[in-house]
Amino acid sequence: DGGITQSPKYLFRKEGQNVTLSCEQNLNHDAMYWYRQDPGQGLRLIYYSQIVNDFQKGDIAEGYSVSREKKESFPLTVTSAQKNPTAFYLCAISIGRGTEAFFGQGTRLTVV
Amino acid sequence: GIQVEQSPPDLILQEGANSTLRCNFSDSVNNLQWFHQNPWGQLINLFYIPSGTKQNGRLSATTVATERYSLLYISSSQTTDSGVYFCAVGTSVFGNEKLTFGTGTRLTIIP
Questions:
Q1: Shortest CA gap A12–chain B (Å)
Q2: Do residues A66 and B11 make contact, with C-beta atoms less than 8 angstroms apart?
Q3: pLDDT tens for residues A41-91?
Q4: Among A41, A36, A51, A31, CA closest to A86
């Protein structure tokens, strides 16, 4: 927070449509992350990026794609290949590996 | 991968009571954070504490890295303390960049 902006806060999409979630930061941090949270569960890592033009898969990357063309932006696309896309999505930033992570306010995606 | 267990899963207390939340992890860590998730889903950073003890007002935390656990203490609970508390850890394994989260402790403070 205080420099991490996720939009929109709520998102509704029809099944089979791709949708892109935005994550922007103005804190000049190198590392950015996308996590997914299902009801009653902790967070699981989807993708992360340590530097511009580079990103790595996390534990549950199937059905998702990302890009890191600018340091301040790390958008997440939920594709039609994601079998259960309805969830709460959180973006995080940190200075680097092993350092404190800070989270945005999240996007609640509902696919109907 | 590393396992993170939090206990208790649920805790209901009267306002003014004290509580202790526990986080056990299965491997050495270079990052341990405690978060409070409010009813709107926002994750609030409480402590970054891979080892040692820290205090912030009514909250304090201790991590004993050699014994692979961390404790979060909340004193004189208030209704605004309600929510889910998560422990998250990062390991020192090269290339392992993620935080692994526990499933949380849901705290309910009754007026």
A1: 18
A2: no
A3: 899 999 999 889 999 999 899 999 999 999 999 999 999 999 999 999 999
A4: A36
Q: Token match 């949270």: residue?
A: A37
> Cα dihedral sign for B82, B73, B70, A1?
positive
> What are the tens digits of pLDDT across the range B43-78?
999 999 999 999 999 999 999 999 999 999 999 999
- Contact between B31 and A99 using a beta-carbon 8 Å cutoff: yes
What sign has the CA pseudo-torsion A95, A10, B81, B108? negative
Residue B109 CB neighbours (<10 A): 20
Strand B10-14 relative to strand B29-37: parallel, antiparallel, unpaired? Answer: unpaired
| Chain A contacts in chain B segment 79-98 (CB below 8 A) | 86, 88, 90, 92, 97-98
Say which of A40, A59, A90 has its CB closest to residue B43: A90
Out of B31, B44, B86, closest to residue A42 by CB: B86
